Automatic annotation (TrEMBL):
Subunit structure: Component of the replication restart primosome.
Organism: Oceanobacillus piezotolerans
Pfam entry (one): Zn_ribbon_PriA
Keywords recorded for this protein, A-Z: ATP-binding, DNA replication, DNA-binding, Helicase, Hydrolase, Isomerase, Metal-binding, Nucleotide-binding, Primosome, Zinc
Protein's name according to its UniProt entry: Replication restart protein PriA
SUPFAM superfamilies listed in its UniProt record: P-loop containing nucleoside triphosphate hydrolases
GO molecular function, one term: 3'-5' DNA helicase activity
Needed co-factor(s): Zn(2+)
Sequence intervals crossing the membrane: none
Length: 802
């Protein structure tokens, strides 16, 4: 057993296989699958993952592994298998799939240190190497003659720890703890024997007779108003001992979180949780779709299911969309499970993320709450995986590996024989269709726990407003209701159903729209810098004073960015205090939370924002929700636009009247008759589902058909068209006659960063060999992709059709 099969860090399809390396003597006792190594590869030395260890190789001249990077595997056997599945499932490279499961820190440059955690002496050689120090560099260890096996043993015993130093930033902190080393009655004996004058020492002993648990040295000395010398005296008498404990950067202040206990469940919740608990208890993998209106107590169901998982000594993963991962949300889990909870959030620094990952890796926590990538948490004994707001498109990763967290969760659920819960007020058609066919088990929560009705929704036809001479973006009804609401000292949430980048510059004389010279997309106007920016490349320029086409000076800003809405809002209702939340105001770390906190403290009357305000917020004083343009999303070139509109309107309506006060919702639209707007206003998911399923069937879209989107890009337009054409021909020949291949067509954004983009779409119901065909076709172009920067991207089950 001295040969390692290694997947090397070379992102090329021609290299996408394992390579055999010989394991040098010194590493033989410690190496294991899931560890990272440095290996020679051609003229270079590169990183790789050991995926298995074998005794024979069919190759004769093997090179040696140069270095082993980890003393304990960073990927479990299960995650190695998952990586293989992921690569195949998403048509990405194995190395890309494996890398996706690890925190960023492990992919960057770092130095390693060995930290001594115990005050007891280590084994002789190691102790000599430390020579009284707490920390030594890993290099020092490597230059010594001490075996890796000895080091690994000390790590497993918890006596030392390998630390990663990223770009000279200290990634870890330690505190000194104090603990009695004798039993209480022996401490009491010592107490009696101590002379009178040793007052401070007596006080300290008395403290530990009452509180035998370890305590932080700094706190202890502060409580007893004494110094290190008192402690030293008792240490020398062998009554107390000190040791170092790692503390994690904790972005959430755990101690201030109010602890909660399980609530008695409502009948509906009880019916929903019962089969879930059964699956947990009997190690049964099932997927449950928990369809519950907003405020129906889905989260309480999650919490109690997790409780049961923890009681069985197992672990839980909870996925929450990035923007719903607010302190409010996190505190619900920390409030119930305290320090057993790790949080994986993209707003954490790389070091903080690494800490959280390590707490999971070292089995110090048993619950992780996080965004998409938390689905890869290296737990080994999973008891449940929960995906809240399962309809959110952010669960699909848009770069390689293009995975959907739902698919990964279900695959891991199968591996661990544990249930997967998908929760939503507006499930995706895909999931709901599976539930109606009993592929998933459906549980429904139809009532809010406080028995408050869902807020009444009024649809306002903006065309009528225009006819009545109102040219503003606020209808008369909305204006009146807002003023009324402010008068009553209640609060308002206003949703602008668009991203910030909808403000473009147009010439009023000739209609010329300023576009990015590198991408075929309008430039966005940024008021604070008075510049035009491209959101796809970093191009920017000053706003022109006259039209480059016709020299007219009638340049105007179009579209309704949040900035502009804010301006007109304060013009319309000068007394209103407005908080704006969009990509621009939340770019800085912590600003998202700050805005929410201010709103929650009633520092503003109106919270104005994009999509990001629609989710998960729970403010008791919000009684009015306004949607400015409900239909703007309906016109996007995306077959899911009706579904997304329905979801968004339902979500945002759920923000009103969540507690004692009743709420109401005003939806402004130019297409009031559209079924997704009508049915959302009635909270009628079932009819929406039926209607939309009819559309999907008619136009051959999911869930009736599966999709593959192939996008080709290159600087030369002719080459792009020809390549796409060729792909269409090749794949058409392979597929059966119920499948369809559409294209080539220009992508919705036909050029980005000077590269032309064409696409084709495959629609199919059953093509068991599709991935093989696609692999073969991509291989045909591998020469050009490598040498000529031809780029072919394959997105299995795409969510963004851009
Ligand atoms: P959802 O996740 O479905 O939107 P939540 O779990 O946030 O709903 O529940 C809404 C509110 O109802 C919360 O304030 C929660 O504490 C409360 N709640 C949930 N379950 C119960 C219950 N069984 N009894 C009383 N209150 C409950
Ligand atoms: Zn012009
Ligand atoms: Zn651009």
């Amino acid at each position: 057993m001295d040969i390692a099969k290694v997947i090397v860090d070379v992102p090329a399809s021609s290299i996408d296989q394992t390579f055999d390396y010989r394991i040098p003597e010194k590493y033989q006792a410690i190496i294991a699958p899931g560890m990272r190594v440095i290996v020679p590869f051609g003229p270079r030395k590169i990183m790789g993952f050991v995926v298995s260890i074998v005794s024979h190789s069919e190759f004769s001249k093997l090179k040696n592994i140069e270095q082993v990077l980890d003393m304990t595997p960073v990927l479990t056997e299960e995650l190695l298998e998952l990586g293989k599945w992921l690569a195949n499932h998403t048509m990405s490279l194995s190395i890309t799939a494996l890398q996706a499961m690890l925190p960023q820190v492990l992919k960057s440059k770092y130095d390693k240190e060995i930290v001594k955690l115990t005050n007891e002496p280590l084994e002789e050689e190691l102790e000599m190497l430390f020579a009284g120090r707490d920390v030594i560099t890993f290099d020092e260890f490597e230059q010594s003659n001490i075996s890796y096996y000895q080091l690994q043993k000390a790590i497993h015993a918890g006596d030392v720890l390998i630390d990663y130093i990223v770009k000279s930033k200290i990634t870890k902190k330690y505190i000194t703890m104090v603990q009695p080393v004798r039993e209480a009655y022996l401490l009491e004996e010592a107490y009696v024997e101590l002379p009178h004058q040793a007052k401070k020492q007596k006080e300290m002993l008395a403290f530990f007779i009452q509180h035998p648990e370890p305590v932080e040295m700094k706190k202890l000395l502060a409580i007893l108003k004494t110094t290190r010398s008192t402690l030293k005296a008792l240490e020398d008498k062998n009554l107390l001992k000190t040791y170092k404990e790692e503390i994690y950067r904790n972005p959430y202040d755990d101690e201030s979180i109010q602890r909660t206990v399980a609530l008695p469940l409502t009948d509906e919740q009880q019916d929903a949780i019962q089969p879930i608990n059964e699956a947990i208890l009997y190690d049964k993998h099932d997927v449950f779709l928990l369809h519950g209106v907003t405020g129906s107590g889905k989260t309480e169901v999650y919490l109690q299911a997790i409780q049961q998982v923890l009681e069985l000594g197992k672990e839980a993963i909870v996925l929450v969309p990035e923007i719903s991962l607010t302190p409010q949300m996190v505190n619900r889990f920390k409030g119930r499970f305290g320090s057993k909870v790790a949080v994986m959030h993209s707003a954490l620094s790389a070091g903080e993320k690494f800490d959280e990952w390590r707490r999971i890796h070292q089995k110090e926590v048993s619950v992780v709450v996080g965004a998409r990538s938390a689905v890869f948490a290296p737990f080994e004994n999973l008891g449940i995986i929960i995906i809240d707001e399962e309809h959110e498109t952010t669960y699909k990763q848009e770069d390689q590996p293009r995975y959907h967290a739902r698919d990964v969760a279900i695959h891991r659920g199968e591996n661990h024989h544990c249930p997967v819960i998908l929760g939503s007020a507006t499930p995706t058609l895909e999931s709901y269709a599976r539930a109606t066919k009993d592929v998933y088990k459906l549980a429904t929560l139809s009532k809010r726990t406080n028995n408050m009705p869902m807020p009444n929704v009024e649809i306002v036809d903006m065309r009528q407003e225009l006819h009545a001479g109102n040219r503003s973006m606020f209808s008369r009804t909305l204006k009146e209701k807002m003023e009324d609401c402010i008068k009553k000292e209640q609060q308002i949430v206003l949703l602008l159903n668009r991203r910030g980048y909808s403000t473009f510059v147009m010439c009023r004389d000739c209609g010329h729209v300023k576009e990015c010279p590198h991408c075929d997309i309008a430039l966005t106007y940024h008021k604070n810098t008075n510049r035009l920016k491209c959101h796809y490349c970093s191009y920017e320029e000053m706003v022109p004073v006259e039209c480059p086409e016709c020299n007219s000076d009638l340049i105007r800003y179009f579209g309704t960015g949040t900035q502009r809405v804010e301006e007109s809002l304060t013009e319309l209702i000068p007394q209103a205090r407005v908080l704006r939340m969009d990509v621009d105001t939340t770019r800085k770390k912590g600003s998202h939370e700050r805005i929410l906190r201010e709103f929650s403290n009633h520092k503003a009357d109106i919270l104005l924002g994009t999509q990001m305000i629609a989710k998960g917020l729970d403010f008791g004083n919000v009684t009015l929700v306004g949607v400015l343009t409900a239909d703007s999303m309906l016109h996007l070139p995306d077959f899911r636009s009706s579904e997304k509109t329905f979801q968004l309107l339902t979500q945002v309506s759920g923000r009103a009247g969540r507690h004692e006060l009743t709420g109401e919702v005003i939806v402004q639209t130019y297409t009031p008759e559209h079924y997704s707007i009508q049915l959302a206003s009635e909270y009628n998911f079932n009819d929406f589902y039926k209607k939309e399923m009819g559309m999907r069937k008619k136009f051959h879209y999911p869930p009736y058909y599966y999709l593959v989107l192939i996008t080709v890009s290159h600087e030369n337009k002719v080459k792009v068209v020809q390549t796409t054409q060729k792909i269409v021909q090749l794949i058409s020949n392979k597929l059966n006659n119920t499948s369809m291949v559409l294209g080539p067509t220009p992508s919705p954004i036909p050029r980005i960063k000077d590269r032309y983009r064409y696409q084709c779409m495959i629609k199919y119901r059953n093509e068991p060999h599709l991935r093989q065909y696609l692999h073969k076709i991509v291989d045909l172009f591998s020469e050009e992709t490598r040498k000529d920067e031809l780029f072919i991207s394959i997105d299995m089950q795409p969510y963004h059709l851009m």
